Amino acid sequence: MHDKNKKNADGTVRSLSNRHVQMIAIGGTIGTGLFLGSGSTISKTGPSVLLVYLVIGCLFFLMMRGIGEMFYSDSNQHTFVAFITKYLGHTAGYFTGWSYWIGLLFASMAELSAIATYVNFWFPHIPAWLIEVVFLAVLATLNIIAVKVFGEAEFWFAMIKVIAIVALIVTGIFMAFFHASTPVGHASFGNIFDHFTMFPHGFFNFFAAFPMVFFAFQGIEFVSITLGESKDPKTVVKKAVNETLWRILIFYIGALSVIMVVIPWTKLSPTNSPFVQVFSIAGLPAAAAVINFVVLTSAASSLNSIIFSAGRHLYQLAKDTHTDGFIHKNLTHVSKNGIPIASIGLTAALILINPILTVTHSVSFMFTLVAGATSDMCIIVYLFTMFAHRKYRKSADFLDHGFKMPAYQFTSPLTIAFFIFIFVSLFFIPGDEVGAISAVIWTVAFYAGIGIKRLVSRSKA
């Protein structure tokens, strides 16, 4: 095989180009929440939302620098969880790996449900389950054919999101420059600062915006999972990670600023997409349909990436189990195209449970409960990742001339403290505390189970 598509030792193929990885990074940075949910956040915090996004964006950037540093030193790993196993031990890796994979399953089910909702916007008579099956089949097939096919699909999915955001920013700046008249006043840069107060609806709403925005960035780490199958990982990881901050500034801070320039934040509807509101004011007659298409592709992009990520995580977990075990024997198969096909196939099959989960209220409630817990578990996984990075820094693997996390002595504990703050804050926000408590119960139960298993093993020895 040609060098540019060389195989790894495990049979996976390095066929993702820099172009693919950079757009996957952009796609991972921009979530559906920006298009749909940012209006609610703005209405609660006003212009202070820019500070919230900036703070959280910077701290996610620091986490990505930590992950990037470890991948730079060992680009043969398929997932960042592999570094948790490597530096914190098998138990920690086992716990975070399975927790993260389960979380990805539930996230994929949520995206699949969202896809059905967006398609029903145009075709309300098509059963949701049929839409879900068709989209899942198509995206799973893209993942199974070849890594390059996945990368190409993600490239164009991300491009659609970029075009929508750039169009919004250009439209808003144009309207502000000409002081365009709108149904709620005039487009003006002064709209951001008119009636400005740091906490327009009280400190608690400002405080509650942090976990809301945090979850909007969830998935930003997906790009790191592509590095094990990229052509030039050491070059790609630097570019992909370093540009994370600029993407946040342009796509989030830029878009949110323009929204408040066109529509005064006091007049913005919290329930409708701010993108639809801006484009409607600008005179785009099909604004709702256009943004529905954007969020549909955004959800499809997320599901596509989750299938890729979850498949690699399950593959890594299977590789880390005993070689004579069922999981290792059945889930480590790599196709001739370099795809961990068994792990992706099982992941896709389990996602098909989603239509069944909506049949009864009790099952739906359990889905919501577990989905909330697994989403919150990501915070714990991020914490373990940062602890693994600290262990890496003290290990013989540390590259002093590598892609180092800036100001590590300060930024590492700061990032860890930030994740702890976000997790603790969930206990004080109505509706979020159940997921946080469930995540704690899962963590305690897992480690208690491991402890009991070890005690039993010792007693039998």
Automatic annotation (TrEMBL):
<keyword id="KW-1133">Transmembrane helix</keyword>
<dbReference type="InterPro" id="IPR004841">
    <property type="entry name" value="AA-permease/SLC12A_dom"/>
</dbReference>
<feature type="domain" description="Amino acid permease/ SLC12A">
    <location>
        <begin position="20"/>
        <end position="449"/>
    </location>
</feature>
<protein>
    <submittedName>
        <fullName>Amino acid permease</fullName>
    </submittedName>
</protein>
<dbReference type="GO" id="GO:0055085">
    <property type="term" value="P:transmembrane transport"/>
</dbReference>
<keyword id="KW-1003">Cell membrane</keyword>
<feature type="transmembrane region" description="Helical">
    <location>
        <begin position="244"/>
        <end position="263"/>
    </location>
</feature>
<feature type="transmembrane region" description="Helical">
    <location>
        <begin position="48"/>
        <end position="67"/>
    </location>
</feature>
<feature type="transmembrane region" description="Helical">
    <location>
        <begin position="275"/>
        <end position="296"/>
    </location>
</feature>
<dbReference type="Pfam" id="PF00324">
    <property type="entry name" value="AA_permease"/>
</dbReference>
<feature type="transmembrane region" description="Helical">
    <location>
        <begin position="129"/>
        <end position="150"/>
    </location>
</feature>
<feature type="transmembrane region" description="Helical">
    <location>
        <begin position="21"/>
        <end position="42"/>
    </location>
</feature>
<dbReference type="InterPro" id="IPR004840">
    <property type="entry name" value="Amino_acid_permease_CS"/>
</dbReference>
<dbReference type="GO" id="GO:0006865">
    <property type="term" value="P:amino acid transport"/>
</dbReference>
<feature type="transmembrane region" description="Helical">
    <location>
        <begin position="162"/>
        <end position="182"/>
    </location>
</feature>
<keyword id="KW-0813">Transport</keyword>
<feature type="transmembrane region" description="Helical">
    <location>
        <begin position="407"/>
        <end position="429"/>
    </location>
</feature>
<keyword id="KW-0472">Membrane</keyword>
<feature type="transmembrane region" description="Helical">
    <location>
        <begin position="338"/>
        <end position="357"/>
    </location>
</feature>
<keyword id="KW-0029">Amino-acid transport</keyword>
<keyword id="KW-0812">Transmembrane</keyword>
<feature type="transmembrane region" description="Helical">
    <location>
        <begin position="435"/>
        <end position="456"/>
    </location>
</feature>
<dbReference type="GO" id="GO:0005886">
    <property type="term" value="C:plasma membrane"/>
</dbReference>
<feature type="transmembrane region" description="Helical">
    <location>
        <begin position="363"/>
        <end position="387"/>
    </location>
</feature>
<feature type="transmembrane region" description="Helical">
    <location>
        <begin position="202"/>
        <end position="223"/>
    </location>
</feature>
